[in-house]
Amino acid sequence: MADRNLLVSSATDTAIRRHGEATYPHECCGAMVGRDGRVTDVVALPNTTEEGPRRRFLVRPSDYREAERKASELGAELLGFYHSHPDHPARPSQYDLDHAWPTFAYVIVAVAQGQSTDMTVWFLKDDRSSFEEGTLHHGENPHPDPAPAVHG
Amino acid sequence: MAKILIPTPLRPYTDKQDAVDVAGATVGELLADLTRKHSGLKAHLYNDQGKLRSFVNIYINDEDIRYLQHEQTPVQSGDTISIIPSVAGGAPTATETTLPQLTNDEIKRYSRHLIMPEVGVDGQRKLKAASILCIGAGGLGSPVAMYLAAAGIGRLGIVDFDVVDFSNLQRQILHGTPDVGRPKLASAKDRLEALNPNVHVDTYETALSSENALKLFEPYDVIVDGTDNFPTRYLVNDACVLLGKPNAYGSIFRFEGQASVFGAKDGPCYRCLYPEPPPPGLVPSCAEGGVLGVLPGIIGVIQATEAIKLVLGGGEPLIGRILIFDALKMKFRELKLRKDPDCPVCGTHPTVTQLIDYEQFCGVVHDEPAPVAVNNATEITSLELKKRLDRGEKLTIIDVREPNEYQINRIEGSILIPLGDVPRRYAEFDPNQELIMQCKSGARSGRAADFLRSVGFKKVLNLKGGILDWIDKVDPSQPKY
């Protein structure tokens, strides 16, 4: 079982929230890059869905490749993606589940009336049956020790 | 030999390798080799039908295989294949958030629905979320309610106030022989809950009226009209139009039935087809004219099909079309219906903007208060008739029913002249002679009596309550129908 934790710095947290508020009432999306469960950089990506950006987001394959390239440039790896739920709770939808990739962290930020509220992180179960909620740690600790206090 | 590049999220399934060497002549063969070597990848690359998932993109060198020959795209030695994720997601849509989930038991029960793409899990959840109101638990209401319950409609309402009678059992399959004498709603609820305990059955033991119709219809998505009379049919139509709810309509008579969907957005309503009801008595009811027992089965199942399609939102609903079925010829005909811009209820300038008195609209005369009907000079009761016969009077009793009805029961000595033959045969009688007219319940014989008076007969009496009353009061040995 992968590590179901994600550490985001306050700068990362703010960047995701600002992105979600800026695109409100549409969904935003972006890639999260880092190492060992710690997000060091976020890459805002264009939402290219054709199904209506208020309810959907889509990252094109070319943008995905760009995100992977950016991660390896930084000597890091692609940890997952974030997206916003405008006027909806920060819980994954069936559509999120149907389109999820394993091991990636999926961060969802709820944006209510243009203001970001809850932020959660989710991981796909190995059998694709559902998402498992992870723990989102906030902090500046540049050297998080993944071992202690992880699963409580 | 070719190389497949593995994206980050799939590397845990390839022992952390970012590239895997595989063999095969086409992209499909390479992927098959890959999933053979690393079986954990299969569930993430392919769906349950064995097709590549829509968000899995396969590139050969820098070309998407969707623009080449898909999985049949040939591979040269040294080509590089990349698996590139499309990342997608989004907030729940309105349906996702409001639709109830299916339990494991429900998934098993509805499996034949779930495996059809036109229904599927989402469609079944729509059925579970749906509410349908059935007007009547009789001939049409029986198959409608049973099939809707079996199909998994979440909430089923039934309006009826009748009691199960032996004469219902030939077609009203909701009710069984032990139910005779019980309220129809009680036996309907038992039957439907036995069929599918997941369905919530609401029962309304009341006569549908202009006072209660809007309130009763309000919580339901679709109304199914299983009524057997014109006032209620117009009432159901108008209430559906006023509330903007679709009406899965059906009607039956003898060997013929009709079905359509009225009151749908931009579709015609019953009044576009029949702006005015027929004059009272012109169209006999099933109780007067009879009905083939299986006919409501056919028409009711069409209504249930349409109701389910309206909930699922697929196919071509019977909107703007009326289906006419003839069981004797075993033929369906279809007529096109247009929305009438001058329709009094759904037209551009409606004159009916609230529910009216439908009994009056349809010219139905009530037994009790109508002064003309209780005219002693034109009627005779069963007991009076019996008394006069017992006194030895020689009376001419004319039975205006059909021969097959006459076969079931009759007043001894009566002469059979079916209503339709009366205008041809009245000359057989003397206009000064007293005639006693009789039918099943007094309606047809009343019309015959009116006719005879209009052509100069001086003393015509109508037997009040018809042969049914005669059997009740005078001759209980005879069967009733």
Report the uncertain regions of chain B: 367-375
Q: What structural class do the secondary elements of chain B suggest?
A: alpha/beta
With helices defined by DSSP (H or I, 4 residues minimum), what is the helix count of chain B? 19
Question: Which regions of chain A contain 5 or more consecutive residues with pLDDT less than 50?
Answer: 142-152
Beta-strand percentage range of chain B = 15-25%
| pLDDT averaged residue by residue of chain B | 90
Proportion of helical residues of chain B: 25-40%
Question: Given the C-alpha coordinates, what overall shape of chain A results?
Answer: globular
The number of E-state strands of chain A comes to: 9
Comma- or semicolon-separated keywords:
heterodimer; A: 152 residues; alpha/beta; eight-stranded mixed sheet; 9 strands; 38% strand; globular; disordered C terminus; B: 481 residues; five-stranded mixed sheet; 19 helices; 31% helix; 18% strand
Summarize the structure.
In chain A, 21% of the residues lie in helices and 38% in strands. Chain B has an 8-stranded mixed β-sheet with strand order 9-8-7-10-11-12-13-14, with helices on both faces.
Protein described:
The complex is a heterodimer of chains A (152) and B (481). Chain A is α/β, with parallel strands linked by helices and 152 residues long. In chain A, strands 8-7-6-5-2-3-1-9 form an eight-stranded mixed β-sheet. The longest helix of chain A is centred in the N-terminal third of the chain and has 14 residues, at 10-23. Chain A is 21% helix and 38% strand. Chain A is globular and about 35 Å long. The two termini of chain A are 15 Å apart. With 481 residues, chain B is an alpha/beta fold. Helix content of chain B is 31%, strand content 18%. Chain B contains 19 helices and 19 strands. In chain B, helix 16 links the parallel strand 16 (396-399) and strand 17 (415-416). In chain B, helix 7 (141-151) runs parallel beside helix 8 (184-195) and helix 7 (141-151) crosses helix 13. Chain B starts with a strand and ends in an 8-residue tail after the last helix. Chain A binds chain B through residues 2, 27, 29, 49, 51, 54-61, 64-65, 68, 71, 77-78, 81, 83, 85-88, 92-96, 99-104, 106, 126-128, and chain B through 7-13, 40, 43-44, 54-55, 57, 59, 64, 84-93, 96-97.
